[in-house]
From TrEMBL:
SUPFAM superfamilies: Periplasmic binding protein-like II (SSF53850)
Gene3D superfamilies for this protein: Bordetella uptake gene, domain 1 (3.40.190.150), Periplasmic binding protein-like II (3.40.190.10)
Name used for this protein in its record: Tripartite tricarboxylate transporter substrate binding protein
Top-rank taxon: Bacteria
Cross-referenced PANTHER family: BLR1237 PROTEIN, TRICARBOXYLATE-BINDING PROTEIN
Similarity comment: Belongs to the UPF0065 (bug) family.
Amino acid sequence: MLVTALPIIPLTAHAQPYPARPVRIIVPFPAGGGTDVIARSLSDELSRGMGKPFIVENKPGAGSVMGNDLVAKSSADGYTLLLTTSAFSIVASIGIKLPYGGIHAFEPVALLGRAPNVVLVRNDSRIRSAADLLREAKANPGKLTYGSAGNGTSVHLAAEYFQSLAGVRLVHVPYRGSAPQFADLLAGHIDVAFATMASAATLIRDGRVRALAVTSPARSPAFPQVPTVAEAGVKDYSAEVWYGVFVPKGTPATVVAALHRAIAQASAAGAFRDRLAREGVVGGIGAPQDLRTTAEQEISRWQQVVKDKEIRIE
């Protein structure tokens, strides 16, 4: 594949061109998960397009707070990026004290798109559909277990919202990322998993797990055979995940613009575009303001959901 290198962007008449050295992409989740896969695909394209290495570093912990904090407190020079998900908004909406200034500690660069979360069981599970899950959960409250990628993550809140609207009670088993969660699901240690589509897509395609439902308002183009949670009978349910790139507050506008152009060009290239599609991410690359608006709207939305539904994140 031929990739045209982007011009190196001088910041001022006296400054070094950007980028002049390797750039870090911080992923606030463990290696091997869906966000990590997307970040590594993007880093390959940015390295080729901008002529310097873009290096992914995983900094998981506290539902993404640790990685967010690292980036928020990094130099505002364009050499430390945050590639995150709607967990960024969720941790700002559930009442925990953040060690950084929330969304105001960042400059948005690009909205990468949206994808559903997905409800999964083992292929040999007696639960064959989302309707089966609802029936069994209502008949046996507090008996079924579900795994998530961690306390306060987007999938955790999606699962809590599901229980609230469906009137069921499942037992939460949090993990440090999706890889150990899937290992325990396949081993039979948990009954159900709520996961991002990006992390689960390969397992679904390989037939190792069964997707019961997606959490988006409409079916996913990546898996059109999988119904939505709302179709299964949980009216008005929707809990998508978005993906975006931020930099620390105060990063020069010229650097933000250069990064946005590079990400837009990367999304037009075969490998990264195909990766997003395979992971169920849709919507195209959004402008910096699109990311800010999305993150702010999600913070307001989840604050209201947590309050109205009395959802508790422990």
